[in-house]
Structures are given as C-alpha cells and as structure tokens.
Design goal:
It contains 2 helices and 5 strands; from the N terminus they run βαββαββ. It has helices at about 20-30, 55-65; strands at about 5-15, 35-40, 45-55, 75-80, 90-95. A hairpin with a 5-residue loop joins β2 (about 35-40) and β3 (about 45-55).
Length: about 100
C-alpha cells in the first residue's frame, strides 16, 4: 500500500444487496477513490466489504455504499475500524462465505 493508506474499514451491508450488482458497484467505486480491498456475499444475505485507503476516500465510499446501485435497497450499513494490516493494491470480488 502507498503512504496514502491511513485506515482500514470493515463493512457489513444489509438489505437488497445480493443479485443487484452491489459488489461490482463497490469495486468500481473503491477503485475510483484509490482504495484497496475486497467485497463478498455472505450466506446470510449481506455483503461484506474490507477496504483500506486515505480517510477522505473512505468517507466518499461510505456515502456510495449507503446508496448502492439502482436496483439495491440498503437497509443497514455497519462500519468497523479494522486494526489489521491494510489491504494490498487493487480491489477484488471474493468468493461467498
């Protein structure tokens, strides 16, 4: 990660967020804001996201995650500060767990 990486956040997004392009929407938004990480569906119906980058870029992503793509309906967004190592460069869609 570059020196721009100042924080890592872990998100759990609930609502109509699977089968609507939410993970790809998140991937594109993260890359647009120079963030690294991953997004995956969970068997409980939520989308989990872990992302690292500069605080102002993370703030911009949070606003986008609250809205989601047009077909989604976000009911809840839980964000947790993550003290683990930052994500490496790039953003991937990870397998469902």
């Amino acid at each position: 990660m570059t020196e721009r990486a100042t924080a890592t956040l872990h998100f759990f997004v609930e609502g109509r967020v699977q089968g609507v392009g939410y993970r790809e929407f998140t991937r594109r938004a993260a890359l647009r804001h120079n963030l690294s990480g991953w997004a995956r569906n969970r068997l409980n119906g939520c989308v989990e996201v872990r992302v690292s980058g500069a605080a102002h870029d993370l703030d911009a992503l949070v606003e986008m995650l609250r809205t989601g793509p047009p077909a989604s309906a976000v009911r809840a967004l839980k964000a947790i500060e993550d003290d683990g190592p930052p994500e490496s460069e790039g953003f991937v869609i990870a397998p469902t767990i």
